[in-house]
Write a structure and sequence with these properties.
Membrane-bound Lytic Murein Transglycosylase D, Chain A; about 450 residues; alpha+beta; single chain; 24 strands; 4-stranded antiparallel β-sheet; disordered N terminus; Immunoglobulin-like; 4 domains
């Protein structure tokens, strides 16, 4: 449900509460409100247009129109806003900016109706040195869920002093004894690690939904990676079926569900030239997608990387022009259901591109849509690829380590300007590269 509808529902709920239901009870005394008039409001840390609209009993659309705001998410701390027909409830309760514990009487979190909000949630104030991924890991919340709850579109844009809402619990899935998930609350586009403590097992196989899981034993624990689809229909509970054999060869089946939370994906409008539109011809796309699918569908058991992945550029805080999973509308058409395949970094042409982690180059050649590409097999079903390159430096079959020079940034293929596109796959499923830079995935 969009924020404008939510704001209207909140106003309707207030009207119904004031008038009573079927006349069964006398109406409660309505809160005293300030006279309706245009007001000036200065945006504070943690504010969203949704929370401001609720505060002044107006709508996001009205605030956007009064301030000529094209993007409701482009709100800066200290920005002056005209609030049309402002009417502020005098007894409204606002969470303390320094609160750390549960705040059950606070205003409901953004993007959720009061009835759908968690019964308890915590308020966290961003500190110097914090990243959103670190905050998400600290509280056991998935990064996309934390972004959705706080109406954030860019995980790199948080400010010291900003107030974030942290859900107390996002799902209550029950796992068999010995089975753990990381992250505990997985969302669309993330990489999920399944760990099974089974010291007596001699072999383990399984699948998540239709995705085969490849287990690796470390001590008494078996680990497998799973890619969680970014596509719109991949939300809810999905079955996991495992089978392991003991020393006597007896099969031990285990079944449970994994709950997948919705991701946070914006929409990007692109206007294409006739030349670029021609590259979207199904015959061209299908042939190229088949080659890519065959390349990243291979599996090698050896883990060729160590620790976190590095940024493939030696550029400090490069601008992200398109985020992973962002839905794209071409020439005014309907946005796609699966969204952008990777992360785009807007950097100058010729900028060096480096391997983000150890692996073997399995494809290094020009393609029609993706332009000049380099694909790296990191092992265990994990792949990286870089598109639209100007110059390919790495050779197919070459073994690379993190930081090795592999290419230069370009604008070849289906590209509107110089940038580096980075895609990643786990078991043939597109995943968000940023998680691999923020977390050490076993």
């Amino acid at each position: 449900m969009d924020p404008v509808t939510l704001a209207r529902l909140a106003l309707l709920s207030a009207i119904l509460a004031a008038n009573g239901a079927n006349g069964a009870a006398p109406p409660p005394i309505a809160p005293t409100a300030a006279p309706s008039a245009n007001a000036i409001y200065i945006a504070q840390p943690g504010d969203t247009l949704f929370s401001i609209a609720l505060k002044f009993n107006t709508t996001i659309a009205a605030i956007q129109q009064a301030n000529q705001l094209a993007d409701p998410n482009a709100l800066a701390v200290g920005q002056r806003l005209i609030i049309p027909n402002a009417s502020v409830a005098q007894n409204a309760v606002t969470p303390s900016p320094t609160a750390r514990g549960p705040t059950p009487n606070a205003s409901p979190p953004p993007n959720a109706t009061p009835s759908a909000a968690p019964p308890n949630y915590e308020t966290y104030i961003v500190r110097a040195g914090d990243t959103l991924a670190q905050i998400a890991a600290r509280f056991g919340v998935s990064l996309p869920e934390l972004m959705r709850l706080n109406q954030l579109t860019n995980p790199n844009l948080i400010a010291v002093g900003q107030r974030l809402l942290i859900p107390a619990a996002t799902n209550t899935q029950v796992l068999p004894v010995g089975v753990t998930l990381a992250p505990q609350n997985v969302a669309q586009g993330e990489t999920l690690t399944l760990a099974v403590a089974a010291p007596d097992a001699t072999d383990m196989q399984g699948a998540l939904d239709k995705q085969d899981l490849h287990f690796q034993r470390v001590g008494d624990t078996w680990y497998a990676l799973a890619g969680i689809s970014r596509c719109a229909n991949y939300v809810g509970n999905f079955p996991v079926a495992l089978t392991w054999r003991d020393a006597q060869g007896n099969a031990q089946p285990v079944q449970f569900d994994v709950h997948v939370n919705a991701g946070t994906f914006g929409v990007q409008d692109l206007t294409l030239t006739s030349q670029m539109s021609a590259l979207l011809d199904p015959a061209i796309m299908n042939a190229e997608n088949a080659l890519v699918g065959e390349t990243v569908g291979a599996f090698t058991a050896e883990q060729k990387w160590q620790g976190k992945f590095r940024l493939p550029l030696d550029v400090k805080n490069p601008r992200i022009s398109t985020t992973f999973g962002e839905r794209r509308s071409y020439n005014g058409g309907a946005p796609g259901l699966c969204g952008h395949e990777g992360t785009d970094y807007a950097v100058a042409g010729g900028t060096p591109v480096y391997a983000p982690a150890g692996g073997v180059v399995v494809l290094a050649e020009p393609l029609k849509v993706r332009g000049n590409v380099v694909f790296i097999d990191h092992g265990r079903g994990v792949f990286s690829a870089f598109y639209h390159l100007d110059k390919i430096i790495a050779k197919q079959g070459q073994r690379v380590q993190a930081g090795d020079l592999i290419a230069q940034v370009g604008t070849t293929g289906f590209s509107t300007g110089y940038h580096l596109h980075w895609s990643m796959w786990v078991n043939g499923v597109y995943v968000n590269p940023s998680q691999w830079m923020e977390q050490e995935i076993p």
